[in-house]
């Protein structure tokens, strides 16, 4: 039997994915050792391999077939635009992509003033402002702590993930517009989907049933 390889997003999404798989009897004890520096983990019995990667790299591994299956946030799937099949909404990691800023900025947004938008997601921001809102903006790519940008005057607004809203609140910012809802998704390499159809379909069906029961 050929190994089915999973690329999981390092951190909370991977833990939640492993919890879900465990409920289906798919375990990988090797992965639970937090001190291990191993990068790839195997379940010989089931013919499965798992590795952890940074979110934006997960769709890359899956597009090239280095992983058959990936678990990653919808934000990353949209931003990366890789050729992968999105097969299942796993229901966890729920949050929203939003345009945020100081309350006073709402007016500038409405009047389509030329504003600066800081974001870790330039493609999502471009699509939203250029294609959906037909608004010209200047997009500035940042790599984290995006909420700083409007506070220190780098940009008028940000396009970023809002989960509980506490980062915004603690920094005197608000949601001005919602771009789209997000959650963790399962993605599959298109060739793997054909070659390993039975095994992958069975996994999707089992996960779907599990999600229905919850
Ligand atoms: C994310 C996101 C927001 C925050 C939202 O950042 O970019 O900053 O979480 O969560 P909340 O609404 O529950 O406060 P993350 O912690 O991933 O780090 P980053 O800022 O370095 O991207």
From TrEMBL:
Protein's cellular compartments: Cytoplasm
GO molecular function terms attached to this record: ATP binding; ATP phosphoribosyltransferase activity
Keywords: Amino-acid biosynthesis, ATP-binding, Cytoplasm, Glycosyltransferase, Histidine biosynthesis, Nucleotide-binding, Transferase
The reaction(s) this protein catalyses: 1-(5-phospho-beta-D-ribosyl)-ATP + diphosphate = 5-phospho-alpha-D-ribose 1-diphosphate + ATP
Broad EC category: transferase
KW Cytoplasm (keyword) present: yes
Biological or metabolic pathway of the protein: Amino-acid biosynthesis; L-histidine biosynthesis; L-histidine from 5-phospho-alpha-D-ribose 1-diphosphate: step 1/9
Listed GO CC annotations: cytoplasm
The protein's role, per its UniProt record: Catalyzes the condensation of ATP and 5-phosphoribose 1-diphosphate to form N'-(5'-phosphoribosyl)-ATP (PR-ATP). Has a crucial role in the pathway because the rate of histidine biosynthesis seems to be controlled primarily by regulation of HisG enzymatic activity.
Protein name per its UniProtKB record: ATP phosphoribosyltransferase
Gene: hisG
């Amino acid at each position: 039997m050929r190994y089915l390889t999973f690329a999981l997003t390092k951190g909370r999404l991977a833990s939640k994915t492993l919890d879900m798989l465990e409920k289906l009897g798919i375990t990988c004890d090797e992965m639970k050792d937090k001190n291990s520096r191993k990068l790839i983990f195997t379940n010989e019995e089931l013919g499965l391999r798992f590795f952890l990667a940074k979110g934006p790299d997960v769709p890359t591994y899956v597009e090239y077939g280095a992983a058959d299956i990936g678990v990653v946030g919808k934000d990353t799937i949209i931003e990366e635009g890789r050729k992968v099949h999105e097969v299942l909404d796993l229901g966890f990691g729920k949050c929203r992509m939003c345009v945020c800023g100081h309350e006073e900025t709402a007016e500038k947004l409405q009047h389509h003033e030329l504003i600066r938008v800081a974001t870790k997601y330039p493609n999502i921001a471009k699509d939203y402002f250029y294609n959906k809102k037909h608004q010209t903006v200047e997009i500035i790519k940042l790599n984290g702590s995006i909420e700083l940008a409007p506070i220190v005057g780098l940009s008028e607004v940000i396009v970023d993930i809002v989960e509980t809203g506490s980062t915004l609140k603690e920094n005197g910012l608000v949601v001005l517009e919602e771009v789209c809802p997000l959650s963790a998704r399962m993605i599959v390499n298109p060739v793997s989907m054909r070659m390993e159809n039975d095994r992958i379909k069975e996994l999707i069906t089992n996960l779907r049933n599990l999600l229905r029961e919850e």
